[in-house]
Specification:
alpha/beta, binds zinc ion, 10 helices, single chain, globular
């Protein structure tokens, strides 16, 4: 495998808010395969900050699906009990809060009390008509989200698996994203980059729909001095589509039952897609 550069650690990062679908399975298998090629270990990170959507059957589904896909991971929880005792994101809340405090001290966040409907009236949260942006709301006011103020035309860059450097404009891709939710929970953009830094992840495999998130997270990493994240290798893969030609998004199951794991045929189809994708890479 000398043609592939050696990397240390990647991660598979599902969210327990629904039953995993073929799109997730494709992403997991691809990540595991790329880890193998680059000699990287795999961490299982379960993004479980959102208690409202987390259900025991969805947590269980993650472990059962990885087993069904015959994916091995070297670090992270092996079962629901280990998740709760040691690996849950709730154990790392203080790290996300530290990051938010640093962003606040750098005056990079503002409070936004807008509802979804109110925001829909603007082209983007950076719109002049969006008055929260002028900082008229107190950051400590209850029931307000924190948005990240990304300077216009600020650039970030990352390297991909081919060693090429890509330049992105976070302000254009995802203007003023939420970094702390209305309920006070750190948002995905903060938790994900803080976790990747915390665990020493140097290979990040994710769907191309997350390219705007990559841009935002690189900006956060710049601000917080998370150099290892800035130096990580990224791979943004195309999304596989469902039978309607749409991005897989719905929970693939009902009640306590996964549809995906009942479908051996689906598995061979997904494995073929991964193999075809890798052959073309
Ligand atoms: Zn607002």
């Amino acid at each position: 495998m000398s043609e592939h550069s050696a990397l240390g650690r990647t991660r598979i990062a599902p969210t327990p808010s629904g039953f995993l679908h073929e799109g997730n399975a494709f992403a997991f298998l691809l990540t595991a395969e790329l880890a193998k090629r680059h000699g990287a270990s795999v961490l299982l990170r379960i993004d479980d900050l959102d208690n409202d959507r987390k259900r025991p059957e969805y947590v269980e589904d993650i472990f059962l699906t990885l087993e069904w896909l015959e994916i091995n991971w070297q670090e992270g929880p092996k079962n629901a009990a280990e998740l709760e005792s040691a690996w849950s994101q709730h154990h790392r809340l203080h790290l996300y809060e530290e990051a938010l405090t640093m962003l606040r001290e750098k005056e990079l966040v503002y409070a936004c009390g807008c509802s979804r409907k109110q925001l829909a009236a603007f082209d983007s949260p950076t719109d002049d008509a969006h008055t929260c942006r002028s900082g008229n709301l107190l950051l400590d006011m209850p029931d307000t989200a924190w948005r990240l103020r990304i300077p216009k035309e600020v650039e970030v860059n990352f390297k991909n698996l081919n060693g090429e450097t890509k330049v992105l404009l976070p302000d254009e891709l995802l203007p003023d994203p939420v970094v702390r939710r209305r309920d006070g929970i750190p948002a995905y953009q903060v938790a994900s980059v803080v976790d990747d830094h915390h665990f020493g992840i140097d290979l990040i495999v994710r769907g191309e729909d997350l390219l705007p998130s990559t841009a935002v997270q690189l900006f956060i990493a710049q601000q917080l001095g998370l150099d290892d994240f800035l130096n990580a290798t990224f791979h943004h893969h195309p999304l596989i589509l469902d039978e309607k030609g749409e991005k897989w998004s719905k929970s693939a199951g009902e009640g306590k039952e996964s549809y995906l794991r009942k479908d051996r045929l689906a598995l061979s189809g997904i494995m073929a897609k991964v193999a075809a994708f890798l052959a073309a890479t």
